[in-house]
Amino acid sequence: MKKVLIIDDDEINNFLASEVAKDVDVIQVCHVESNATLALNFLEAHKGCETFPDLILVDLNMPQMSGIEFIMQFESNFSILHPNSNIAVLSNSIDKREQRTAESYISVKEFVKKPITAEILERLLSTHSPT
């Protein structure tokens, strides 16, 4: 069973993504945070535990801390202890420059256009979190 963390400042996208996650059988837990700082606090609380997310979906454009800043913090503080935890970047637009920047980080496995669907979520989990 998989654990997923969704980080997005848009309440509607969070609601839709969490509803979609309910339709994916392999997801045991889907946790949602409305900003990157709260998400980092969540990860810190679950660091080294079985409850650490297998897949993190993060929006790029958020106030306070951007998705890229979150990814940098993730790689500095969590990726060594949790090398099988992967990130998929969510965006409303596919800006090639943003995509290249995000994909330059080892934890980022894919760049996905919103809204997320059950099929995309299932594919992300089977491709980037197969165990």
How would you characterize this protein structure?
With 131 residues, the chain is α/β, with parallel strands linked by helices. Helices cover 40% and strands 23% of the residues. It has helices at residues 11-22, 36-46, 67-77, 96-103, 118-128, and strands at residues 2-7, 27-33, 55-59, 86-91, 108-113.
Write the layout of secondary structure elements.
Layout: E1 2-7, H1 11-22, E2 27-33, H2 36-46, E3 55-59, H3 67-77, E4 86-91, H4 96-103, E5 108-113, H5 118-128
Parallel strand pairs: 1-2, 1-3, 3-4, 4-5
Q: What's the number of extended β-strand segments?
A: 5
Output the structural class: alpha/beta
Q: Can you give the mean pLDDT?
A: 92
Q: How is the largest sheet built, in terms of strand order?
A: 2-1-3-4-5
The percent of residues in helical segments reads 40-55%
Unreliable stretches (pLDDT < 50, length at least 5) are none
Q: Assess the beta-strand content as a share of residues.
A: 15-25%
Q: Shape from CA axes?
A: globular
**In this structure, how is the largest beta sheet organized?**
5 strands, parallel
N-to-C CA distance: 9 Å
Number of helices: 5
What value does the Rg take, in angstroms? 13 Å
Summarize the structure.
The chain is of the alpha/beta class.
Q: Can you tag this structure with a few keywords?
A:
5-stranded parallel β-sheet; 5 strands; alpha/beta; single chain; 131 residues
